[in-house]
Structures are given as C-alpha cells and as structure tokens.
Design a protein that fits this description.
The complex is a heterodimer of chains A (115) and B (108). Helices cover 0% and strands 48% of the residues of chain A. With 115 residues, chain A is mainly β. The relative contact order of chain A is 0.33. In chain B, the strands form two sheets. In chain B, strands 2, 4, 5, 9, 10 and 11 form a six-stranded mixed beta sheet that branches. Chain B is mainly β. The chains are: A mainly beta (115), B mainly beta (108).
Chain lengths: 115, 108
C-alpha cells in the first residue's frame, strides 16, 4: 500500500473484553513499531519488531499486552481483559531498514475506548 | 534508560523565527530526529541529525551537539500552518523514544 494502515480506526469495548489492533506496514519495511499516545503527549514506546522477531517489548505496560508479527509484515497488538486506563490512541509505525537511520512512517492510529 | 526534555509550549508570531530545544539522556545514542504532528493527524518526519552540526531543509533546520546531549529545531518564516506539536526523538539500537512534545502556537 501507499502508507501504513491500521484497523480498526476506532474501537469501543467494554471493560474485561479482549481487543486486537492490526497494523499493515509499508510493503517491504523491515521494522515495525507500536506506540501509545495520550492526548497532548508524545508517542510512548511499547514494542518493536525487525522482520518477524520482537526485538524489545520493554514498553508493554503489563502482561495483558502482547504483540506479534508472524510473517514479518502485518502485526497485531492484543490487549486482554481491557481496563479503562487502556483507553488511548494506539499508533503503528514502520521503517524501511534496520541500523543507521531512516524515518518512521506512522499510521493513522486506532482510537481505543474502554467503557 | 532514556529521557528527553523539551518545552511544553512555545508561542511565536507569523513570519518570525522560533527555536525548540531538546535535551536528552540516553545510555546509547543513534541520532536525534524531529517529527511534526498536526491536531488529529499522525506524526510526520521532519529531520534527523546523527552528527554534530546543523542540517537544513527549507525553512526548517535542526542542530545537534552530542557532547551537550542537546539539539534544537529552528523554524524560519513561520506560517500559520506550522501550528502543530513538535517532537524530538532519540534512537538507540533501532529503539526510538519520543519526547512529550512542544506545542507551537503562532499568532497572526
């Protein structure tokens, strides 16, 4: 695709439900990142992948959060037993290569609301 | 760990020049980048500095001093469309951490 896409764009769920957020990076991009962004704040690092390997998950808030990228392309961020404090914008970004620097391209985000 | 500090808000006049500072603490350093985010939009890349000095891209310039763990974004000839939030970010081993952002208000 032309850019990073995320689905759904909006998700409203009840406390205690599981949710799965999807990220489709730019074709061929090696690195994929997940961030959470509160209103008026910067993107908060959650985890990232190079190809299918999860390189760092130190930003995941607790064990209810998990992410996978099984084929090195599409990624899913799963939140189990959602809580109201999980409500936020979840953003995905991809980079063309590892090492050195190349810019991150961000998707439009998924706005999660937990009631 | 890694942390970044930048002012929460800056106000400037249309047509003027504004500088947004960023200081960082990191156990490793890969480069300092800047992103712009308009309300309701996604962050978009502006510039990157891996080495000390000034990088210029049109009306925007970015500076880095690795010895001072400091950088800034300079916006010249401000336009109303530059009203946005600006984030500095540091990278280490492909892990990229963002600051909390500076909200730029532009007065006509």
């Amino acid at each position: 695709g032309a850019g990073v896409s995320q689905s759904p764009r909006y998700k409203v769920t009840k406390r205690g439900q599981d949710v799965a957020l999807r990220c489709d990076p730019i074709s061929g991009h090696v690195s994929l990142y997940w961030y959470r962004q509160a209103l008026g704040q910067g993107p908060e690092f959650l985890t990232y992948f190079n190809y299918e390997a999860q390189q760092d998950k130190s930003g995941l808030p607790n064990d209810r959060f998990s992410a996978e990228r099984p084929e090195g392309s599409i990624s899913t961020l799963t939140i189990q037993r959602t809580e109201q404090r999980d409500s936020a914008m979840y953003r995905c970004a991809s980079r063309a290569n590892t090492g050195g620097y190349n810019e991150q391209f961000f998707g439009p985000g998924t706005r999660l609301t937990v009631l | 760990g890694q942390s970044l500090e930048q002012p929460s808000e800056v106000t400037a006049v249309e047509g003027a020049i504004v500088q947004i500072n960023c200081t960082y603490q990191t156990s490793g350093f890969y480069g300092l980048s800047w992103y712009q985010q308009h309300d309701g939009g996604a962050p978009t890349f502006l510039s990157y500095n891996a080495l000390d000095g000034l990088e210029e891209t049109g009306r925007f310039s970015s500076f880095l001093s690795r010895s001072d763990s400091y950088g800034y974004l300079l916006l010249q000839e401000l336009q109303m469309k530059d009203s946005a939030s600006y984030f500095c970010a540091v990278g280490r081993d492909d892990k990229i951490i963002f600051g909390k952002g500076t909200r730029l208000h532009i007065l006509p």
